[in-house]
Amino acid sequence: MVFKVLTASHERRSLLSLALSYAASGGSLIIGSLAQLVTFAILARWLGVDEFSLFVAVTAIASIAVHLCGVGAMECLVRRVAQDRSMYPVMLGHNIILTAASGAALTLLGTIVLPFYFTLAAGPIANVAVMALMMATNIVLVRVIVFTEQVFLAHMNFAAANKVVVGFALARTAAAVVACVVCGVSTVAGWAVWQFAIHVVVALGCARALAGLGRPRYAIVREELRQGLLFSIPFILRAARQNVDLLVLSVVGSAEIMASYSVARRMLDSSYLSVEALNRLIYAGSARAAAAGLHHAFDRVRKVLMAATAISIAAAVTVAVLAPVLPHLFGHDYVSLVAFVRVLCWVVVPMAIWAVALEALGASGHHPVRAAVMAGGSIIGTAVTAAAIWLDGATGAFISFYVIEIAMVVVAWTALVAVVRSDRRLAFAATGEGAV
């Protein structure tokens, strides 16, 4: 009886601790999201629909490339350090080498190729220079800043990770206010300089924050190269699927449709942060719980699913209710904005449901299965989205979103259950652990 009381008390304390941690994590992401939304609104107003749609198109391409920067080494660090803190120095060196090499290559490639398709400044030399700033900012510097957050998460230092998120978002907002509102910047070329400068300042601050955790040991952890590729490639494909709508719509739609749709997509991404706050909080703990097999963590995954579903529904309702306020924030030139947001906001619910399954597969080290689900969904989704938008513009984008995300729920959870059953069978064969 005493044991049951102590166990119940421990569970209550654990739930309270998790709730408080989620409140802090979610609060930081919400603050960061609101700051990003304000930044987005300032840029939308001051750049205007033509320049803003150009900015969104270039940023969409960089958003795909950033997932290749580092070749998945960041996830390897979080997983390995969460399981064994002594791995930090070598995993840090592993990340620095891969991020520097891949980041330089991606920046150079984007700087050479993209000026043929986008004109960001008058004159070929100026255009290349601005593109180089955009690539370096949105690929290398963004990766460095996000990496800092992940390092703190790997060390279970959620307060420091939250400070990185909030500080980064507020710094960008401050830069947008000074650049656009105070100094009157109204072109992508002008904003690119300010954006690069503030990212450099934040990245230097991140480097200083990491200095206290120890010096890197420069080496390639060969066994993690394959895991890193398996982790990053699905995210690259997923990023392609998430940005192909912006790229195709920029071709077939008007500047207003493109700009309004991009804001609606930003609202969807912002609402998903409430789910991401939960996933980032439990990933390291799930990695420890699943170290001896995913079946050990399956009860935990089911609880995360219930929480993620409830959180996503609340986020969608909130966005739908607040949608009429957006034209006052972004400007009345975005005439399609409210309708687009209210149609798209509910996509966050199936996104949250399948993300729980894939996060569990990643935390347990089942990257081949996870990669197969994400890669397959992304490849098919990219083709479906591009075709739907080409045929029916924004309406095609909305339909494809719901079809793809619901299909991902079915496939992701089918794969997760299959892995859990396989791990349970293997454990029973090895130790007679079948009752677990």
Residues in helix, %: over 70%
Mean pLDDT: 83
In terms of per-residue confidence, which ranges show pLDDT below 50 for 5 or more consecutive residues? 1-8
Categorize the overall geometry: globular
Give the strand tally. 0
Q: Which series of helices and strands comes N to C?
A: HHHHHHHHHHHHH
Give the percentage of residues in beta strands.
under 5%
Taking the sheet with the most strands, its summary is: none
Counting DSSP H or I runs of 4 or more residues, the number of helices is: 13
What is this entry, summarized?
The chain is mostly helical and 436 residues long. It has helices spanning 2-65, 73-83, 88-113, 124-154, 158-182, 188-211, 222-252, 255-289, 298-322, 326-330, 337-344, 348-363, 367-431. It has 13 helices and no strands.
Explain how this protein is built.
The model is unreliable at 1-8 (pLDDT under 50). Helix 2 (73-83) runs parallel beside helix 8 and helix 4 (124-154) runs antiparallel to helix 5 (158-182). 84% of the residues lie in helices and 0% in strands. The chain is mostly helical. It is built from 13 helices and no strands.
Question: How do the strands and helices of this protein lay out in sequence?
Answer:
Elements: H1 2-65, H2 73-83, H3 88-113, H4 124-154, H5 158-182, H6 188-211, H7 222-252, H8 255-289, H9 298-322, H10 326-330, H11 337-344, H12 348-363, H13 367-431
